[in-house]
């Protein structure tokens, strides 16, 4: 009787292990990865450099935008923000090239505590308390065309990239 119980227990353990291995395989397997996929773009670790003068960068971007008949795109965020990196990766997709080319892009660092450049966020009507990344589109003279008021892209990793592309296309010249 003991050997039947031991065999039954071993069979249950084996089934549990087999189901777990199958689950892990199916959960992590990506059928598209086996196809010839392009190499992933390395994540830019210092997307929001701490030592950059955001005011000076915005002024320079406005000057370039005026010469090139573009608008300025301010992207408020931080290096610790995963959604900020997701948004930046979307901006570098080939299908975004023509839309992003219509802007001079400036990454505005909010710092590790979320308080850096708050005056700029206020000036450009971007409520950082609603989340980051947060965007503002400016004319080349610094006038705000549109700013995100409700943290629209704060959950960028769960969004369809088409939403980002639609935003860029809607506000470009």
Structure description:
- This protein has 173 residues and is of the alpha+beta class.
- It folds into two domains: 2-31; 54-171, Glutaredoxin, CATH 3.40.30.10.
- It contains six helices and four strands, in the order H-H-E-H-H-E-H-E-E-H.
- Strand 3 (134-138) and strand 4 form a beta hairpin.
- The chain is globular and about 85 Å long.
- The model is unreliable at 21-26 and 30-43 (pLDDT under 50).
- The CATH topology of the largest domain is Glutaredoxin
Main sheet?
4 strands, mixed
Question: Roughly what is the average pLDDT, rounded to an integer?
Answer: 84
Could you state the order of secondary-structure elements as H and E? HHEHHEHEEH
Percent range of helical residues:
40-55%
Individual helix count: 6
Number of strands: 4
Which outline best applies?
Answer: globular
How much of the sequence is in beta strands? 5-15%
Unreliable spans are: 21-26, 30-43
Please describe the topology of this protein:
Layout: H1 2-28, H2 54-68, E1 71-77, H3 82-91, H4 97-100, E2 103-109, H5 118-123, E3 134-138, E4 144-147, H6 161-171
Short synopsis of the structure:
The chain has 173 residues and is an alpha+beta fold. The chain is built from six helices and four strands. It starts with a helix and ends with a helix.
């Amino acid at each position: 009787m003991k050997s039947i119980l031991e065999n039954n227990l071993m069979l249950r353990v084996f089934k549990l292990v087999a189901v777990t291995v199958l689950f892990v395989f199916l959960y992590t397997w990506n059928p598209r990865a086996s196809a010839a996929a392009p190499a992933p773009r390395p994540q830019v670790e210092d997307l929001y450099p701490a030592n950059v003068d955001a005011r000076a960068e915005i002024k320079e971007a406005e000057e370039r935008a005026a010469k090139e008949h573009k608008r300025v795109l301010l992207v408020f965020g931080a290096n610790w923000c995963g959604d900020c990196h997701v948004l930046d990766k979307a901006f570098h997709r080939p299908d975004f090239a023509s839309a992003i080319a219509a802007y001079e892009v400036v990454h505005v660092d909010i710092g590790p505590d979320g308080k850096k450049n708050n005056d700029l966020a206020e000036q450009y009507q971007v409520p950082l308390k609603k989340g980051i990344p947060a965007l503002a589109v400016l004319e080349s003279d610094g006038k705000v065309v549109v700013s995100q008021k409700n943290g629209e892209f704060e959950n960028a990793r769960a969004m369809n990239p088409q939403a980002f592309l639609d935003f860029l296309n809607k506000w470009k010249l």
